[in-house]
């Protein structure tokens, strides 16, 4: 069914890097979500009202909120597809994140209202009338939500959309909450227990928990979260695959929304190499990222002395020395300034975002280790804190 809907309603569905195609995926997910959730809301609200069940009515309102979420997501994808203009030179793709945040806030508000109604039901309990119609509606809801979870996950993975993946997770959560309501209905009928209010409260708390997670997931990219480790690894490996590249560091990724990501990095190449040849390699790398990954990359060339000589030997020795302190440490931009009494080693040391030593402690450790090997060497260290570290294999 999912493949059929994609092939039927999305033209050029394989061209996932296209803004138009991405918008079509979001539109399809939104329309399907609205239709399914409105039908589930109508069915559950009807049986919940007829048979006096607060938990079923709460679950119905949850479906209504899901329909509203699909509408917001639909509008978000539409606005995100707007091209860049003079006031927004990086495009409008972050509207997708804002739509996700709006959905999360709506979920929280509805969860609070459900909790209030459930507490009132707990204080004034009433036995819920059992009906096979109610059971059929709840079982049907579970089956529909299972399919919606699969549907949104498939589309979300296809276009790498955090909004659709969050919607898929929400549908999966709805399966659990509706299953709990069904369980309470059957158990209450068999043992004459008034579990309706308690189960409604459980559903409300579950919705609040899901809403809080959704808020975090949608706020992170807006606040500027660290790039995905897989993306960092892919960027690193592609740069290192080019001839003449000795190393890369200082990677920064800016996220302006899906399909609108920019990156910058420093690339080390031999100082002895012809500068025009090195520049040609840098141009090729930048073009490769844009044409094949849709990623805007700006690369700064760092010349590194590699010829057999004192600077080259010290660079390799110093790199091994800092790795002896911590295998994640790297150095770059080494310069040597010799004087009559001592030699300054001026370099940058890159540390991961979460590092156990303070900058002062790390500098002292390196200085002590260097002076132990050669008392004439005096270190002038700049510590770079990397938030896009290459993950260990």
Automatic annotation (TrEMBL):
GO terms for molecular function: monoatomic cation transmembrane transporter activity. Residues 227-303 form the Cation efflux protein cytoplasmic domain. GO terms for cellular component: membrane. Keywords: Membrane, Transmembrane, Transmembrane helix, Transport. It is found in: Membrane. The keyword Membrane applies. The chain crosses the membrane at residues 25-47, 97-115, 127-148, 180-209. Residues 32-223 form the Cation efflux protein transmembrane domain. The keyword Transmembrane helix applies. InterPro entries: Cation_efflux (IPR002524), Cation_efflux_CTD (IPR027470), Cation_efflux_CTD_sf (IPR036837), Cation_efflux_TM (IPR058533), Cation_efflux_TMD_sf (IPR027469), CDF_Transporter (IPR050291). It is a multi-pass membrane protein. Belongs to the cation diffusion facilitator (CDF) transporter (TC 2.A.4) family. PANTHER family: MITOCHONDRIAL METAL TRANSPORTER 1-RELATED (PTHR43840). This is Cation diffusion facilitator family transporter. The lineage of its organism: Bacteria, Bacillati, Bacillota, Clostridia, Eubacteriales.
């Amino acid at each position: 069914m999912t493949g059929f809907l994609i092939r039927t309603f999305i033209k050029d569905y394989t061209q996932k890097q296209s803004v138009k195609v991405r918008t079509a995926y979001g539109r399809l997910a939104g329309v399907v979500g609205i239709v399914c959730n409105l039908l589930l809301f109508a069915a559950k609200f009807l049986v919940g009202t007829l048979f006096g069940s607060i938990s079923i009515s709460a679950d119905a309102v949850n479906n209504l909120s899901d329909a509203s979420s699909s509408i917001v997501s639909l509008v978000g994808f539409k606005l995100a597809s707007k091209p860049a203009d003079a006031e927004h030179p990086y495009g409008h793709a972050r509207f997708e994140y804002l739509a996700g945040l709006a959905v999360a806030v709506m979920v929280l508000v509805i969860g609070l209202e459900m909790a209030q109604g459930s507490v009132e039901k707990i204080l004034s309990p009433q036995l819920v009338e059992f009906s096979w119609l109610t059971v059929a509606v709840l079982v049907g809801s579970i089956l529909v939500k299972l399919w919606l979870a699969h549907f949104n996950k498939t589309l979300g993975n296809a276009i790498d959309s955090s909004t659709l993946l969050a919607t898929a997770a929400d549908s999966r959560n709805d399966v659990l909450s509706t299953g709990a309501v069904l369980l309470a209905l059957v158990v209450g009928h068999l043992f004459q227990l008034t579990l309706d209010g308690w189960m409604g409260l459980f559903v409300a708390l579950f919705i609040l928990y899901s809403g809080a997670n959704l808020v975090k997931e949608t706020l992170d990219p807006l606040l500027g979260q660290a790039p995905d480790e897989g993306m960092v690894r892919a960027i690193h490996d592609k740069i290192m695959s080019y001839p003449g590249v000795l190393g890369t560091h200082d990677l920064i990724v800016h996220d302006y929304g899906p399909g609108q990501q920019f990156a910058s990095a420093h690339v080390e190449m031999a100082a002895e190499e012809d500068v025009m040849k090195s520049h040609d390699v840098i141009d090729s790398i930048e073009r490769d990222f844009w044409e094949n990954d849709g990623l805007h990359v700006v690369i700064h060339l760092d010349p590194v002395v590699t010829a057999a000589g004192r600077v080259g030997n010290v660079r390799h020795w110093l790199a091994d020395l800092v790795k002896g302190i911590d295998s994640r440490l790297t150095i770059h931009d080494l310069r040597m300034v010799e004087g009559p009494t001592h030699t300054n080693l001026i370099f940058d040391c890159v540390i991961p975002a979460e590092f156990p030593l303070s900058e002062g402690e790390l500098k002292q450790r390196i200085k002590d280790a260097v002076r132990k090997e050669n008392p004439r060497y005096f270190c002038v260290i700049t510590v770079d804190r990397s938030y896009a570290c290459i993950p260990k294999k």
